[in-house]
Design brief:
single chain; two-stranded antiparallel sheet; Porin; mainly beta; 298 residues
Length: 298
Amino acid sequence: MIYAALALISISAGAQNDLIQSQYIHNRFAVNPAFAGNREGVTIFGSFRKQWAGIENTPMSMLLTSHAPLRHDNIVIGLTAYNQSIHETSNSGALATIGYRARATEKTWLEFALQPGVAMHSYNWNKVKVMDTDDKAFSKSESATTPLLGFGMSWYGRSHFLGVSTTSLLVSNDFYDHDSKFAPDSANYIFTGGYMFDVTDRFQLQPSTLISFRKGNDTVIDGTLTAIYNDFIWVDAGYRTTDELTFGAAVQVNPQLRIAYNFDLSIGDLNGVHYGSHEISIQYDFVYRVKTVSPKFF
């Protein structure tokens, strides 16, 4: 039963590119295309996540993103590729981002972005173990391709960020009908926000939140507190309303390279059933950064 439930979750989530991401604090572009170009250079980010380690065939996902402002600072672009596998299903996709930003104030940007793309789904029903081996419903594999159209807007500066996005305004709710329809009322919406406080010249604290909302589904709230020391070490802890505690650490190896790791611990019904969820990422900025009293890292 647990595998059937997980497969259905994957099919529903994959259609809209709803990958679980604990490291949104390091890569806001992954959850909102309107953060493209916010690091003022070409940024490449890659991550791998294993959900619920210790349970066979639970979700594994890989994500690769890249984004940058063009020579004209108001135009930003980005690319996203992802793959998620769970039990006998696989979901992958590729998306492009084009956005426009303008100065809201001397030190803040207001940005809007569109993210068209395509999602590809495959279901290997013939690998599912069933009681009736002659059941034709589980004797073949299926695949489908659906379009995606994400949208986002954000307001950010040195010390704060605020954004709202949707993974796709084109939604396919019927498992057997893969024709996506423009349905903003059925889309998944993500709200993010945070503020960085300068405690000392070398120590900052940033509370942040991510809220995922879809009509008819439970709203998921993720709250995180991040401590940054000397623009070198990041340590974060948080709580997700799916009964999970989140912990993370990152090291800024040099002004361009950052490596991060996150661990999610279930404290609800799944407590003790698995060994937690693990996520690791590498981020590289193709621009040299000079340290400042208050580093801009989001």
